[in-house]
Design brief:
This protein has three helices and no strands.
């Protein structure tokens, strides 16, 4: 049976002649009670710490179990997904190929349509170009015809005939002057060489 601190402090001893000093015994008992009280307090504190640690460990254990269970569920989901994907991969590949073929076919149809539109537009431009070329040829032919007619009329105009004669005479005079000048230069060059 454990003795309480209170019992140690309140303990009374009978006195005898030449017995122990009552004061020393009381002081010793007081010291003993204080030490026991401190030790019990440390033990209680250690027990409380142990209890907290046990609770923390229990919480951690619960958390670890929960995590392990979550990981098992994830593993099962991944496994089921892989099995599902393996079962369905051929179908997915077939569908993807069909979709790709449809996309390519649509693109080819659109491309052919665009090419046809471009060809039609080029044919239209070619036709317009040929028409413009013909219009230009006709315009030039008509213009040349008009110019020739005007020139013929102008050449028959007496005043222009006279001007042409004057210009012709002036051109002759200039040519004659240039010839004379060159002859003089040649003579001078010959005389210097001698």
């Amino acid at each position: 049976m454990a003795i309480s601190i209170h019992q140690i402090r309140d303990k009374e001893f009978t006195t005898k002649t030449f017995g122990y000093s009552k004061k020393e015994v009381q002081e010793f008992l007081e010291n003993l009670a204080t030490q026991i009280e401190e030790e019990r307090s440390k033990v209680k504190e250690m027990q409380a710490n142990d209890e907290r640690k046990r609770n923390q460990l229990a919480d951690r254990e619960d958390q670890a179990r929960s995590n392990v269970e979550a990981l098992r569920r994830r593993e099962q989901i991944i496994h089921d997904s892989i099995v599902f994907a393996e079962r369905n991969k051929d179908e997915i590949i077939r569908n993807a190929r069909k979709e790709a073929e449809n996309i390519i076919r649509d693109a080819e149809i659109r491309a052919q349509s665009t090419i046809n539109q471009a060809r039609n537009y080029l044919n239209k431009l070619d036709t317009e170009y040929l028409q413009l070329k013909e219009q230009k040829r006709a315009f030039l032919k008509n213009t040349i015809s008009h110019v020739k007619t005007y020139l013929e009329r102008l050449e028959q105009e007496p005043m222009i005939v006279q001007l042409n004669l004057l210009e012709e005479e002036q051109r002759k005079k200039r040519l004659e002057a240039e010839l004379k000048k060159k002859e003089l230069e040649n003579k001078n060059d010959n005389s210097e060489d001698k």
